[in-house]
Write a structure and sequence with these properties.
Length: 411
């Protein structure tokens, strides 16, 4: 297949449902290939992607590299502007300044201290899950656990009231269209509407915390913003609260769904975890490699003379990093298409690398380990009730629905 054909196919539903054959076709073109028409290079090799993520010669795209007619189509205060005002899309020195304000909430010690509370939340949600499926009725794992669990945890951490949380699944779903590869900017309309709603929500909540601070991350960031000393602007406050909320659950929701589907396909693995023969952490790491919730990211060459694997990439040109393909790179993994939680030396690029290395990786890993340990223990007979449906997404890969029965015969 030609490079453009592969890219086009990845943007359409069959390719998004199962991108792995397309990644294999891309790998045939080499670990790095160019699509000059789009000023784009595509990377499929594990080591090359790892190198780009860590290289100071590459960073997030700057608006200066985009044609004015594209910039003009972005809605002021909309999805693209919100994401690009957050640390996810910032370059040094702004990135370093803002990330250091947030990272204290995510130190390994703080995250480990959350384990008892997270265990309790998982237990309560599985109680409800069990009640819903007690008569052998199908229950949607995505709606009743995979969404509710991480959203509860991140909202507790940020300080978001319980009654507000149900809106967040559709809002996050709409907003994250802005992270996808899209061929038509009008598709951003729902993402822009979601960004506007989240902005209004966080502005109101910040005002409340300003008047009455609490012991939560929103209050802490509002105080930094109030100091008015250039550490955190109003726009950065709202953009990063939005990022933390959305990044804090959408990806973890997908890790839980992708993991359960794999466990149902490989019942001996769930049994191995239950019996203590397979560490639950190893199961989670293999899910992250085999069917990663984040399939790709991109970087732009920030300097002249930037190189990937010895090939020069001109300043302003983009490199698409296909982590989902790198995770099946035979140069890095033995039998890459086999799901094997006990494979040695199983490191993935699921959480990125370098200065943008996922701030929430410790939290996401802890949540997934706690959830799967409880799930396999409590529901040894769990099985699929219907064919699961994938979200129509490539970048954030997950299921829309995953209906299961907890005991008895599946429908
Ligand atoms: C399985 C779950 C998760 C996955 C797979 C994931 C993946 C990623 C990836 C790949 C990046 C880097 C993107 C890039 O380099 O372009 C990233 C960044 C980030 N993630 Fe996560 N993430 C997960 C969970 C979380 C959670 C739970 C939180 C928050 C509590 C979080 C917050 C962030 C933030 C704030 C960044 C931006 C960091 C920066 O740019 O410095 N993530 N994540």
């Amino acid at each position: 297949m030609e490079p453009q054909e592969i890219l086009g196919a990845l943007m359409r539903p069959p390719g998004r449902d199962d991108p792995y054959p397309l990644y294999a076709a891309a790998r045939q073109l080499g670990p790095l290939f160019a699509i000059p028409e789009f000023n784009l290079h595509v990377c499929t090799g594990f080591e090359l992607i790892n190198g780009v993520l860590r290289s100071p010669d590459f960073g997030k795209y700057e608006f200066e590299y985009l044609p004015q007619e594209v910039i003009d189509q972005y809605v002021e205060g909309g999805s693209v502007h919100t994401i690009s005002s957050s640390i996810l899309d910032a370059n040094p020195p702004d990135h370093r300044r803002v990330r250091s304000l947030i990272s204290s909430a995510f130190t390994p010690r703080r995250i480990a201290g959350l384990a008892p509370a997270i265990t309790r939340v998982a237990g309560e949600l599985f109680d409800e899950f069990e009640r819903l499926g007690a008569q052998g009725d199908p229950v949607d794992f995505m709606e009743y656990f995979a969404f509710r669990f991480p959203v509860t945890v991140i909202c507790e951490l940020l300080g978001i009231p319980e009654q507000d949380r149900v809106r967040f699944r559709p809002l996050a779903h709409d907003l994250t269209v802005a992270l996808e590869l899209i061929d038509d900017l009008t598709k951003l309309a729902p993402a822009d509407a979601a960004a506007a709603e989240l902005r209004a929500y966080f502005e109101k909540l910040s005002e409340q915390r300003r008047a009455q601070p609490e012991d939560d991350l929103i209050s802490a960031l509002v105080q930094v913003n109030d100091a008015d000393d250039g550490r955190l602007s109003d726009g950065e406050l709202i953009a990063n609260l939005t990022l933390l909320l959305v990044a804090g659950f959408e990806t973890t929701t997908n890790l839980l769904g992708n993991g359960l589907e794999l466990a149902l396909k490989h019942p001996h693995v769930a049994e191995g975890v239950r019996k203590g023969e397979i560490p639950v952490a190893a199961f989670v790491e293999e899910v992250l490699r085999f069917d990663s919730p984040v399939q790709l990211t991109s970087r732009t060459a920030l300097t002249d003379g930037a190189k990937v694997g010895g090939k020069e990439v001109k300043r302003g040109e983009q490199v698409m990093l296909l982590m989902g393909a790198a995770h099946r790179d035979p140069a890095r993994f033995t039998d890459p298409d086999t799901f094997d939680p006990l494979r040695p030396d199983n490191t993935s690029l699921s959480f990125g690398g370098g200065i943008h290395y996922c701030l929430g990786q410790g939290l996401a890993r802890l949540e997934a380990q706690i959830a799967f340990a409880q799930l396999f223990e409590r529901f040894p007979e769990i099985r699929l009730a219907a064919e699961p449906t994938r979200s129509d997404r490539l970048v954030l890969r997950g299921y829309e629905t995953l209906e299961v029965v907890l005991q008895g015969a599946a429908a």
